Amino acid sequence: MDYDYNTSRKNLILPEYGRNIQKMIAHIGTIEDRAERNKAAMTIIGIMGNLNPHLRDVGDFKHKLWDHLAIISEFKLDIDSPYEAPEPSKFESKPNKIPYNQNRLRYKHYGKSVGLMLEKAAELEEGEEKVYLTTLLANHLKKSYLTWNREAVENEQIFKDMATLSKEAIKLSPDDIKLNETRDILHQNRKKPRPQRKSK
User: Fold this and answer.
1) Cα–Cα–Cα angle for 96, 15, 50, nearest 5°?
2) Is residue 128 located within the same domain as residue 162?
3) Residues 129, 85: one domain?
4) Cα 119 to the chain's mean position, in Å?
5) Measured CA distances, 4 to 21, 30, 73, 140 (Å)
6) How many domains does the chain have?
C-alpha cells in the first residue's frame, strides 16, 4: 500500500493557498477546451479570494490573485487573464542582502534610541521643555538600567551615563532633578514579564 507523505509531494509554491488549490490549478492545465479553462480559472480565483480575505484591503486585489494563479501554475496556464501575467524572471533573482547594523552600543541596556533622544534634548533651549524632557529621559534610563542589570543603582550613575550618551552635552546632578525611587521602579518591573536574554 502506497502512502501519500508530504515528503514525497511536490513543494507548495504559495503555501498560504494550500495543496488543494495547487492541485486544482494543475488540473486546469489538463482541460483542453479554452472556454472551460477560463471558467475554471475564474472559479478558482473566487476560492483564492475567500481563503485570503485580508488581501481585499490590498490595492488591485483581483490583480494580485491573478498573479498568484500564474505563479502557482508556474506560468504555464494558457488562459485569458484580465491582467498581464508577471514575468517569471522577476521571481528568479534573490533579494538583496540587508547588511547588519555595525553600530556598537556602549550601553546595550539603554538601546540606541535613547542616545539619539538625548542628543536632541541637548539642542533645546534652556527652559521648562528641556527640563521636562531630560527628566523623562533620566527616569527612563534608570528604569532600563534596573530592568536589565542589578537590583539597585545610584542616581549619580544615571546622570553620568546621560552625560556620556549625550557626548557631555547634558550634565545633571541629584540637585537638578529628582528621579523616581528605585523601589517604585522595581515594583513596577516585577509586575511585567522580565525580558529574556538571548543565549549566544
Assistant:
1) 115
2) yes
3) no
4) 27
5) 17, 22, 22, 57
6) 2
User: How would you class 196 by CB atoms within 10 Å of its CB: exposed for 0-12, middle for 13-18, buried for 19 or more?
Assistant: exposed
pLDDT by residue for the chain (200 residues), tens only, comes to 455 555 556 789 999 899 999 999 999 999 999 999 999 999 999 999 998 887 777 778 889 999 999 999 999 999 999 998 888 887 776 767 777 665 666 777 777 788 788 888 888 888 888 888 888 888 888 888 888 776 778 888 888 888 888 888 888 877 778 888 877 777 776 665 555 555 54
Going by C-alpha positions, the residue among 87, 93, 65, 60 that lies closest to residue 75 is 87
The answer on 151 and 81 residing in a single domain is no
Residue 153 backbone dihedrals phi, psi, to 5 degrees: -155, 140
Position 172 in a domain: yes
- Give the predicted TM-score (pTM) of the model: 0.46
Beta carbons within 10 angstroms of residue 185's beta carbon: 19
CB 179 within 8 A of CB 158: yes
* Any domain includes 2: no
CB 134 within 8 A of CB 177: yes
Picking from 57, 91, 125, the residue at the C-terminal end of a domain is: 91
Identify the domain boundary among 59, 91, 123: 91
- In-domain check, residue 40: yes
In a domain, 45, yes or no: yes
| Domain coverage including residue 125 | 112-191
**Which set of grid coordinates corresponds to residue 3?**
502512502
